[in-house]
Amino acid sequence: MSKFIVGLTGGIGSGKTTVTNIFAELGIDIIDADVAARIVVAPGSPALSAISEHFGADYLDAQGQLNRAKLRSRVFSAADDKAWLNALLHPLIRQELLAQLAKASSVYSVLVAPLLLENKLHKLVDRVLVINIDQESQIVRTLARDPSSSAEIKRIIASQMPSEQRLSFADDVINNQGVSMAKLRQQVIDLDQKYRVMANNPV
Ligand code: ADP
């Protein structure tokens, strides 16, 4: 089991997936909060039954899968519904992440979560790594990746922690602002070297 855990976060379009893929290529086990969030509501799960009892069976599709877009739009404008859903899911996601972290076998592991700080998942990690990028680049890169609108991306950015506040939690920062893929990769390689030393020399 890897005992040393790096928590990786950053706003939408900051480069979390790209950076995570580089850590994975370097042999590091990745534990992804978005993946855990899907596992806990998989067809047949207790949480999915609770959701369909609470919100209605029409939140499941014909295959018994959660209609995430429909649920997202329901809780977006209803604070009570959002609070109910978070109270159900957050402990389950945390449990799933802990189970996956316990199984990680690389020298250290990376826990990636868009809302690492907002959801206090940084309490599970030894070090917080933030990817930094300005809002303009977040919008340009997300638009190039997703069929979305800049208004929708701005709404997501507004729902996440402001960048200066996120940076105040950072032990390490990756700059992905106006940086080539090669320069981004080099920053990850340098951090990987540093984390290997830290993981092997616990304080
Ligand atoms: P996140 O997972 O944080 O939302 P991604 O890793 O998906 O962000 O990056 C957003 C988009 O920007 C992707 O299409 C990715 O390929 C691209 N991208 C990330 N870093 C760079 C970079 N340094 N130069 C050019 N494109 C980049």
Automatic annotation (TrEMBL):
ATP binds at residues 13-18. One of its GO terms (cellular component) is cytoplasm. Gene3D superfamilies: P-loop containing nucleotide triphosphate hydrolases. It is an enzyme of class 2 (transferase). Keywords: ATP-binding, Coenzyme A biosynthesis, Cytoplasm, Kinase, Nucleotide-binding, Transferase. GO terms for biological process: coenzyme A biosynthetic process. Its EC number is 2.7.1.24. It catalyses: 3'-dephospho-CoA + ATP = ADP + CoA + H(+). One of its GO terms (molecular function) is ATP binding. Pathway: Cofactor biosynthesis; coenzyme A biosynthesis; CoA from (R)-pantothenate: step 5/5. It is found in: Cytoplasm. Its main location: cytoplasm. It holds the Pfam family CoaE. PANTHER family: BIFUNCTIONAL COENZYME A SYNTHASE-RELATED (PTHR10695:SF46), DEPHOSPHO-COA KINASE-RELATED (PTHR10695). HAMAP family: Dephospho_CoA_kinase. Belongs to the CoaE family. Catalyzes the phosphorylation of the 3'-hydroxyl group of dephosphocoenzyme A to form coenzyme A. NCBIfam families: dephospho-CoA kinase. This is Dephospho-CoA kinase. It comes from Colwellia chukchiensis.
